[in-house]
Amino acid sequence: MTKILLLGDTHANYPALKAIIDYVRPERFEWIFNTGDFTVYSTFPNETIDWFRGRKNAICILGNTDRKVLRILKGKKLKKPKKNEKRVMYFWTSENLHLENITYLKSLRKQTDVTIGGFRIGIFHGTLEDPDEELFPTAPESRFHQLARDSGYPVQIMGHSHVPFYKWVDGVHFINPGSVGRPFDGDPRTSFAILKIASGKIAVEHFRIPYAVEEVVHSLKEHKLPDIYAKMYRVGKKLN
Ligand SMILES: [Fe+2]
């Protein structure tokens, strides 16, 4: 059996990632997949990237927030987000990222794939067609049919919507582990999933566990970053 730890949308929330690390013991997993968005909206981008960067069995891709941070670092204009409180978080991140972590982010792609146990697994931030598509479990079934059709990926793992789900449509397994560091569903606990592959079969289990939210709140205040994010982590909702 191959066991894979599914993580994504950490958003620089290392205390949340640390809670998962302590809970699951990552050394028990053959692989760790990360659907991107390492950065922005919390104050621990370096600790977060350091951890993934240090794992030889981690397969990671970029998310939209990471791509925007890299844009800033290249000296390009940031058109979106428009709200100042969001922009502050992007610029704070770009100013505080360590060089080795910038280099690491630059080495990553928007999507990737790997074959395990006979399954070709696609790892996407949004979907295989659009890294910025928010695919919710409530999306029309027709959208899942489209994404399943001739995709070549019988397993599709994605993040970006921050909503954990597992759907099986037209023989394709769609899995979103939810957001490690920025849940949007009103449950502030950290979210992740475990994928098991054995004898041509797939099993998925989702988890929610508490973490030290107040550590994040304290750090945001210490760095004089917008109050709205402190509240966001406490309630587990997108507030802007
Ligand atoms: Fe995200």
Characterise this structure:
This protein is α/β, with parallel strands linked by helices and 240 residues long. The protein has one domain: Metallo-dependent phosphatases (Purple Acid Phosphatase, chain A, domain 2, 4-Layer Sandwich). The protein has eight helices and ten strands. It has a five-stranded mixed sheet. It has a five-stranded mixed sheet with strand order 4-5-6-8-7, covered by helices on one side. It is globular and about 50 Å long. It binds fe (ii) ion. Fe (ii) ion binds at residues 9, 11, 37, 63, 160, 162. Fe (ii) ion is lined by residues 9, 11, 37, 63, 160, 162.
Lateral strand order in the biggest sheet: 3-2-1-9-10
Weakly predicted, low-confidence segments: none
User: What do we call the CATH homologous superfamily?
Assistant: Metallo-dependent phosphatases
Question: Are any ligands bound, and if so which?
Answer: fe (ii) ion
**Could you state the order of secondary-structure elements as H and E?**
EHEHEHHHEEHEEEEEHH
Distance between the termini: 42 Å
Secondary structure category? alpha/beta
Estimate the mean pLDDT confidence.
Answer: 97
